[in-house]
Amino acid sequence: MERTTCCVVGGGPAGMMLALLLARAGVAVTVLEKHGDFLRDFRGDTVHPSTLTLLDELGLGAEFAKVPHRLVQQLQVQLDSGLLPVADFRRIPGPHKHLALVPQWDFLGLLADAGRAEPTFTLRMQTKATELLTEGGAVTGVRYRSADGGSGELRADLTVACDGRRSVLRDAAGLRARSFGVPLDVWWFRLPRHDGDPTGGIARFGSGQGTVVIDRGDYFQCAYLIRKGTDATLRAEGIETFRRRVAAMIPWLGDRVEAVGDWDDVALLDVRLDRLVRWSTEGLLCLGDAAHAMSPVGGVGINLAIQDAVAAARLLAGPLRHGALTRRDLDRVQLRRWAPTALTQAMQRVIHARLLNPALTGAIPLVGAGSARPSRPIRLLQRLPLLQAIPATVVGIGLVPEHAPAFARGVSSRTTNSTTGRH
Ligand SMILES: Cc1cc2nc3c(=O)[nH]c(=O)nc-3n(C[C@H](O)[C@H](O)[C@H](O)COP(=O)(O)OP(=O)(O)OC[C@H]3O[C@@H](n4cnc5c(N)ncnc54)[C@H](O)[C@@H]3O)c2cc1C
């Protein structure tokens, strides 16, 4: 029978960060990841200022600096008359005053390499958890299927479901989620970026549409917001109609919309917003998207997933090391992370209701088009630019940032800057 102290299911941001930190505490930890690599197109690629600080604390800042990345210092809204800043990361507290955009596979690869340096860390790729093992009502591990099609059982003192927003483990455990309706789905696609194009992130909403473009260096990662459930209807209108809509919203992209060749270049994200009522049951804890699927509003899902992992590692490493884990320890993790999660989701729901839903139903005109004036909040942010620190702080740092526990800190933690690599 295979056994470990902590079995982490899912090698995404939450799972990899948790496993690294627990391994640094000397806890035997095994990560099961169903894919053979971390390569996935259109995943969240944002590394937030709070995560950059965490990487410094873990002594990984210099390694991260070697990974090619793009910095975003400002988020702006597009009007007919030009661009207006609404969030300014240069005004936020802390050493890192930008988002870093890094392919998620590079970021996860970095965590995996750091984990492999620890003797108690094991990462098993192409290994899919298929079922929970239980004894007397308590979860005691998982049954899994490996690359060769064989199956096995891994028993653990604690199983952590970090298997994302379609978590099979949370369903298998019968954990109940509260779902919040969302008005939108998202189409992801890419457009080339030319020298001299705007930098950072740019958004425009209204007249039944919404577009967000993120500067990724030689291309823009683009999100086109559609009303929930309208994917098939809109695709039936043809790719040319879609190209025209994008060009009408962000006119300076009009010269390159042909780069979207056909619908295969446009990926649908089925947006969900939910939260487990209880994040744990005896022997099982859910973290990250498995505990709370986030809306893409604000691009905060990765930050919350990582912060869950850091809090869990800090609260659980001791009890796991001493074989003394109790149900209360698991409850403490939810207690610590519930408020920032619920508040962030509440903010996302307000933005859905006040901005995105009216924009997507056509109830508000295209922001700043022709005679339409920018909305009052946007005007206020222009009059008092200091206020641009508020949205930037919520996105970049989060409501309850988490710092590396002492047992996980790296030697160069206080002296390495993760985006410059300078000591
Ligand atoms: C298209 C897209 C764009 C996004 N953009 C952003 C963004 O810009 N900024 C942002 O902050 N967030 C973004 N998000 C959200 C963000 O990606 C998630 O909130 C974040 O990745 C959650 O991390 P996680 O570790 O909880 O789960 P995930 O990242 O979903 O990781 C789950 C992992 O578990 C593995 N897995 C699943 N089931 C099993 C199983 N049975 N056995 C073994 N392994 C399993 C999966 O392969 C995956 O690697 C985006 C999401 C999507 C889909």
Could you walk me through the main structural features you see in this protein, from its secondary elements to its overall organization?
- By secondary structure, this protein is an alpha+beta fold.
- It folds into two domains: 2-67 and 102-180 and 272-356, 3-Layer(bba) Sandwich (FAD/NAD(P)-binding domain); 71-95 and 187-227 and 229-270 and 365-398, D-Amino Acid Oxidase, Chain A, domain 2 (2-Layer Sandwich), CATH 3.30.9.
- 31% of the residues lie in helices and 26% in strands.
- It is built from eleven helices and 20 strands.
- The protein has helices spanning 13-24, 49-57, 61-66, 104-116, 168-172, 231-236, 239-249, 301-321, 327-360, 376-383, 389-396; strands spanning 2-9, 29-32, 46-47, 70-72, 74-79, 82-88, 99-101, 121-124, 128-135, 138-145, 151-161, 177-179, 184-192, 201-206, 209-215, 219-227, 267-269, 274-276, 280-281, 284-286.
- The strands form four sheets. Strands 1, 2, 8, 9, 10, 11, 19 and 20 form an eight-stranded mixed beta sheet that branches. The protein has a seven-stranded mixed beta sheet with strand order 6-5-14-15-16-13-17, sandwiched between helices.
- A hairpin with a 2-residue loop joins strand 9 and strand 10.
- Helix 1 packs parallel to helix 4 (104-116).
- The protein is globular.
- The chain starts with a strand and ends in a 27-residue tail after the last helix.
- 47% of the residues are buried.
- The model is unreliable at 412-423 (pLDDT under 50).
- The structure holds flavin-adenine dinucleotide.
